[in-house]
Structures are given as structure tokens and as C-alpha cells.
Amino acid sequence: MSDRREWLSRLYAEGVTPASFVPDASLGRRVDLDAALEPGAGVELLEDLELLVHPISRTEPPPGLAFLDGIQQWKVIGYDGVAPIALAHVAAAVRRLGPDRRAVTAASASRGLVLAPEPTWTPERRGIVAASGLEAVPVPAAPDQPAAAIEALRRAVHHERQSIEKRLGEAAVAELDPGQWLVVDGQLSVSATLARHPRTVGVIKSHGAQFLEGRHLERALTVPASHRTTVFRVLGGHGRTAVTSWYVRLWPWEGHDLHYGLLRVETRDSDTAIAQASTIAGWLVALRAPLAAPDARFDRLLYPIHDVETYLRSRAPGEVAGSTAGRLPRTGT
Amino acid sequence: MIQRSEPRASPIGRVVATEQKPATPHQFHFWTATETSIGIGAIVKVDEGGRGKGEGGRVVYGVVTDGFAYSDLATPLHDVIGAEGDPARAGEAPAVRQEIRLWTAAVLRQMPEEPLQPVPLGEVHVATDADVALALRMDAYLHSAQPTAIPVGLYTSGGLEAPVYLDADFLLGPEAAHLNISGVSGLATKTSAVEFLLGGIFQHFPVHRGRVAAVCFNVKGPDLLFLDQAGSLDSDDRRRYERLGIPPTPFERVHYYAPFKADGVNLNTLRTHPDLTGAVEPLVWGLTEVLDFAEVLLNRDDIDAKADAFIDFLSDRVVRRDFDDGFGDTHHVETFADLERLFRSIFDGLENTARGDIWRTHHIATIRKVRNRLGNVSTRCKGLVTDDGPASDLPWGRFEDRAVYVLDVANVDPLGQDLVFARVVSKLREHLERRDLGVDAVVVFVDELNKYAPADGPDSYVKKMLLDISERGRYLGLVLFGAEQFRSQVHRRVVGNAGTQVFGRMDADELATPGYQVLSPAIKIKLATLPVGELMVRHPHFTQPIFIRFPRPPVLRGRDGVERFPPAEDRPFEDAVVLQLTRLDPKVRPNQVKDLIAGRDDRDVRRALGAVRRERPRDVFALFRKRLGTRVAADGPRDAAAVAPLDPIAEEPY
């Protein structure tokens, strides 16, 4: 993307109207698009007859603990008529805590993408993008509905980020030494490999998808700090791998919000899941410090995950982020 | 002297620039790993690297002036929350925050120098030997056809020991000159540094620049009294000497001078141990040597226009010539005793002839006043100023190349110290102007500039002389190496004219004075905690101050010297005379001398001894006997040859 001006100029010469629009939530933070449960998904209590809370104590995490996270950044760089064309950067990295407790990068990957509704891609435009070293990504979307097209681009970017994250995570678990664990920011169930690995942990910070209901849901959402819920099985449903899960509260929520400090944790669906739950919950409690502040999600964001995001953002090309503090008032569609 | 550039090493840092902390042509910022060998004062090299766009190739050298460490912690409260208020738990966190070592560096040199641009955001490397030479612009005088480099110490950082050189043209003139060194007392840094530097000058001062000597005023204790004796050096010191290309040997040619004590035969110095081969020569001056410097000896209240005119009259018309006093007597004034006889003749003449109060247009009150003040000089500076008898002086016109002349005035009355300094410097100046001193340049080392050239206080003759050297000495080859504890308390023009400024460990209060505002807080902290043997140097070729380490001087320290060579007890008069004669000629037989001087007036003996010292005959005893003359039986009261003691209150209303 170093020759951005050149290829953009050529693209604009091909009839694209220049634009610079950074959609909301496109500067690195992930948007949880899996808020809704998939058909067939459900839960099955494994540990207790009904959902209870269990106290946990701080436990030292195992050495060499690794963390996987990804970022996505994108912006609209032009319009073909009213069809938006976006430049995106997706990246993922695995960073491992060393003996000195500092994180170092174990693996990373990134991609530069140009996304546009399928009809927008002429052979000339594909050639210009390919020559720049970026990947042209046709998105199935109607070119004459800009709002819908932008939403489609957003989902496409999200998909690409998830894809690179999944690929990197699967490569990372293949190289885990015995005794080493991988903590994934998000659901394990997106990858069968990750979901079935004995030493992976998925940490979910957003709670759009509620697996419980009634008093079970109430107990889960009001679990006290340094407590976890009963372990339950999340049935995979269509296209997902079944995992075991439980909630854990890192910080007292009273005075804040129900979700304050609340994590849902996923591990492999196995006989050892119940035995491991308190230990893993103890690791997460230990990982409350250092605080991931000033990130607004510091109550749920583990510092090493925050560190992976910081690392990825520091390596992202500045041109994708664009100028978010322009002199003119920001407008949007 | 400089090693060639080593193969390209891995960078230790990278220049960063933000809107808040941009890189400029004079300053830049860079980060390093948390574990790094560099620190405040380290020299680094920024390599632009090219980037394949043709704008590359620029290299910037800088010196680290400040350092910062911080983590991504937004507020200390977050740390408290993370540790749940328990500091012990903060250390138990499984992960630690990312942190940074951010350094600020001041630009030493950009290559190419034009166009002058902000420092590129390139890789940062530790400087090699060759880089240090380039960064400090030493290449111009180190690798030229006629090098003028004088080693001043080693730049040390991260295991590197790179020699640092001063330019002789800017240290000893004519381009710039003078060196000023500041630092707290008691760390043996200032004197040691000057001793080391003088050794370097004597070894490396280029022959094509002429001959050089040093005159050192020893103003306290035994500091400079053992420059010819080898001191102890450890292996590190020897390695540093080898790196600097200086043989670690004491000075080969050192000449010591000291006034006598009040007895006129024992020298007023701590270097009196009989095992010391280098003898101390007496420093004795008479009327003719002193009269030109009456302004030094007489304070502002003494010297009014009338007294000044009368002193000029004496100097121009009376001293060293036959002079008719107008009352029938002819005088030939060479000594204070001769002058006293003239004064008495004038007073008697005016009284006997009733010619009023005026003699040769000078009022008798003025004459009495001058007589009073000059008479007191030989009393206050007894041992240095002689009432009668010949002077013993420095070898004007015969100064040796690469020799040190130490004048031990540590135990001399402050007035005498001023006189010694003023006269010696004036004579140096006279001879250098006439180019007949024997050397082309003289380094004058003066400690305690706080005392001799204070920023405040009245203008003294010595201060005026120091200002004169500072401002005009470089044209003559008269170079001032001054030392003081508090630079801020030395006259601005004295320190300001020093082309090379050296700083040892500094007092925190001193560093808070305006003269140090240009230094960063980190540099000040480093200066306040500088270990023995380290200095900060400013030199015209260096655009920023540089920290260096110098080896201990290869000479015996004063304190060690008096322990190894304890001063001898004062000898009885006869023994002291014998000692002085046997030093001039070992064949002189002590008993013969004692028999000769037995029962003789001490003043006659001192006069004869002075004559022998001055003439240095082949047969010392013969000349001594001749100058002493034959014994004449006293036939009555004899006029006092010396100045009669004065009671300024009872006898002199002036």
C-alpha cells in the first residue's frame, strides 16, 4: 500500500469519485456480529442440576501463555456512482508471555484489501488494485443501494478479519508445546480446530447472544466478582462445534452494569472441562492486572489481549485509519 | 589513533517523531529496548538508510541528553485498581505493561552539513571509534597533514573506549585558548585532570607548533610538589594510557621554586625531603623586582595619584642609577636598604636645610606614606622579598621545552601570592611578546580562581591580570588553565574566554545557577553524581558537552608525596647554608663553610649565598668566601642596613 497515491489516482481516473469516509467502529475494535444464536444452538448444564455460582481463587497462569486477537480497519475511498469502494486492513497476531512476563510476538499475519460490490469490478480496476499489491474483494451487494452496500462491506471486512484470525489461531495451536495454552479473544466455536484443542480458551467480552434464560440467566448476569457459574455445554448448532462454557466475573458489577467485568469462557467440550473451569477462571482473575485501561473495555479486556491489539494497530498502515480529525466537520451517510 | 569503522551492527534504537516531539535539525528522540547499554552522554549515530528513493545517505550524530521511561499506564490510579490497592500484588501480575525507553539526543553533527534538515527517522546505532571522531569533528585535526590533536580522555559507553582529542590550536591558541575546570573540592579531579592534560600536551603538542612549557602555582598543600615522581596506576589506567597513546610516566623536566621562610635560608615548601633529587630553587626578589608591581602590594586606599606619581619617579629616575638627592649625597638604589637610606637622607636634608615639606615636587607626607607601605612589603613578604642582597628568579629567557615550572606559594602570605602571580605572569607576557622566553607557548595553571578572579568584589591587580590573559593571552601563547570550585563565582570574562570548559562533579546549588541553564536536568544529575575520573568537556569543535574518562595522572599525588617523602625539619642557620652550598657543589665541605660563617652577620651570609646562587660559579666555596668578604672588627655602632621596623600608629600619621 506504499504506492497508494499512484494506484488511487489510477482508480479515480477509471471513473471512481474520490471519497474519504471512516465508518463507525472500523478503527480496530471488533464488532460482535454474532449476537444472535444460530438455529439449533442451545445449552446443557454439565456441572450442577441448575446454574449455580462457585467461588474461585486467583491461580497463576501456566508459563508461555499465548493470546490471539485480530483487528480490522477500513474506510471508504471512493464511489462508483453510489456504490462504495473500501480500503481495508485486517490483521491478527499471537503474542506469548515470556519468562519476564512481557509479551512477544509468536506469529502475525495481515492483508490489505479493496472491497466493492461485485458489479463495480471492471478488469481495469482489478488490474490497478492487483498491481498495487492489494487484494481485490468483490462483495455480493447491490451497487445502487449505498447504505446496504456499506453494511455488506462491513460484514465482508469482518469475515476477512475472522478468517485471518482463524487461520493464524489454527497454525498457532499446531505449534503449542505441551503445557502451553492459547487464549483466543472471542468464540472458539468459529474454528473446529480451536474448539477441539485441549489447551485453548475462548474469552467472550460481549454478551449479545444469551444462552440462558430465566433464573439461570439472572444468576449468570449477577454472578459476584471472583465467582464463576456452573459449567454448561453450548451446543454447536448449524456450522458450529460444541464447546463447554461458563461465566466468570472479574470485577464487582454493583454500581456499574450487569456486564461489567463479566466474561463468558469457552473451552473444549471434554470430561475434564468441569475440573479445569475453576483453574482457568483463576487464571483470568489473575490476569485482571495489569489493567487494560485506558481502553474503555478494561473491565473485561485482558491486558495481554489489549497488548495484541496495540501491537497490531501500531503496525497497521496509517492510510487506512485516515484522518479522523480533519479540519472540516465529519459527515457520513 | 582511530580504529576504522566496524562492520554494520544491529540498530539499538529508532528515531521517532510526533507532532508534540518532532525531530528538528538540532534535536531528536529515539527509543531503545528496555535493556540497553546507552545512557546519558552516549554518542549515537542515526543512519537514514536511503529507503530507495534517492534521498538517503544522511548520517546524523547525536549525544543523549535526556531519557524517559514510561508504560501505557494512563493514570497511576489504574495501577492501584489493578493491584487492588496492595503494592505487593502489583508485582504478582502474570503480565507486565509494555514500557518504553525514550531518549532525547542533541545533534552533534550532520553529514552532509548542508542543507541543514531535521534528523531523519532512521535507525540508531551506537557510535564506534570512527563515529566518535566524526561526531566530534575531530577528523579535521586528527587526520590532517599536520595533526594538532591532544588527547583529553576516553569516551566510554557500552564497552567502547574511544579516544577524545582536543585541538591544540583551540586549546593553546591561536584560534582559541585557555581551559577552565570546575568541580567540587576533595575529589582529586581538578588537579589530576590538569596534570594528566599537561602530560598529554607535552607528549602530543606538535613540533611544528613550537616549544611549550607550563608554569603552575601551587597554592595549597603539596598538590603539585611531586610531579617528577611516579604514582601508582592500576591496569585500567595503564590500558587507558595505551589507548590514548600517552606513556604513563611522570614529567621529565620539573623545576620547583619556593620563597624562603623568615629565616632566609630554609625554603618555605613541603618538598624538603633529602631523597628528592629535584631541588627546589629559592624564589627571592628585591626592590627592583617588586617596585614595578607596587600596585599589587598597595591597596586602593594606599595608591592615590600622588603616591603613584612618586613610585613612578622612584622607578624611572632613582632605582638602578646614580641619583643625587639634592642634599649633597649620591645614591645608587638597588635594594630596599638602599632605598631606606635615600628616604632618611631626604628627611634629614629637608629638616636640616629647612626647605619646607616639598622634595622634587613631592610632598613629604607622600614620601613618608610610600616609604611606610614599601617598607612593610619586605616585612609581610619576608622570605620572598629581601631587604638587601641579590634576587633569585625564574630562568627568564631560558625556559625549557616541555618543562613544568612549579612555584610553591602555598605557605606565602596572600599579598606575597598576589605579587608572585602578578610578576611571573607579567614577565611571561613580556618575554612572550619579545619571543625570547625560550618557548613559544606557556600554560599557566592557577587553582582557586574563585579567590583570584571573583565575579564580585573590587578589581584587584591579579584579577586584571587574569582578565588580560583570558582576553589577549592567546595571541601571545600565554594560556590560562584555571580551576575553581564554583564557576558561577568566577569573573564571567575569565570563564567565558576559556575555549575549553571542563566540569567535574558539581554541587547541586552551583548547577542551579543561570550558567547551567543550557544543560538538561539529566545532564545536571549526571554532573552532580559524576564519579572520580570522569569529566564533562566543552570544546569549540564539539557542539555539545561530552563526557569522558581520564586515567589517574602518572605522578605522585600531593598527599601520597608527603607521606612517602615527609618534609624535613627546618635546619639551623649554619646547616641550611651548608645544604644550599652543597646542592650547588657537592664537593663543598660543611665544616669549612661553618667555620667561615661562624660569628658572621646572618644578613652578610644570606647576601653572599644569594650571590653564589645567582652566579653559579664553578668553585662555589671560593666565590662564597669572596662575596662574604673578610671579617672586619666592629669599631662602633653600625647603621642598620635593613628597613627599620615601623610603628604605623606612633610614627606615621599617614
How would you sum up this structure, described in words?
The complex is a heterodimer of chains A (333) and B (654). By secondary structure, chain A is an alpha+beta fold. Chain A folds into two domains: 1-30 and 71-179, no CATH class; 34-61 and 181-287, no CATH class. Chain A has eight helices and 13 strands. Chain A has helices spanning 4-13, 123-131, 146-174, 192-196, 214-221, 273-286, 303-315, 318-321; strands at 17-21, 42-45, 53-55, 66-80, 83-97, 103-117, 135-139, 182-185, 200-204, 227-229, 232-235, 243-249, 262-268. In chain A, strands 1, 2, 4, 5, 6, 7, 8, 9, 11, 12 and 13 form an eleven-stranded mixed β-sheet that branches. Chain A has a two-stranded antiparallel ribbon with strand order 3-10. In chain A, strand 6, helix 2 (123-131) and strand 7 (135-139) form a beta-alpha-beta unit. Chain A is elongated, with a radius of gyration of 21 Å. Chain A starts with a helix and ends in a 12-residue tail after the last helix. Chain B is of the alpha/beta class and 654 residues long. Chain B folds into four domains: 13-86 and 98-135, no CATH class; 160-283 and 392-482 and 492-517 and 543-563, 3-Layer(aba) Sandwich (Rossmann fold); 288-380, no CATH class; 571-654, no CATH class. Helix content of chain B is 33%, strand content 19%. Chain B contains 23 helices and 22 strands. In chain B, strands 12-11-17-10-18-19-9-20-21-22 form a ten-stranded mixed β-sheet. In chain B, a hairpin with a 2-residue loop joins strand 7 (149-157) and strand 8 (160-167). The longest helix of chain B is centred in the middle third of the chain and has 21 residues, at 414-434. Chain B is elongated, with a radius of gyration of 31 Å. At the A-B interface, helix 7 of A face helix 1 of B.
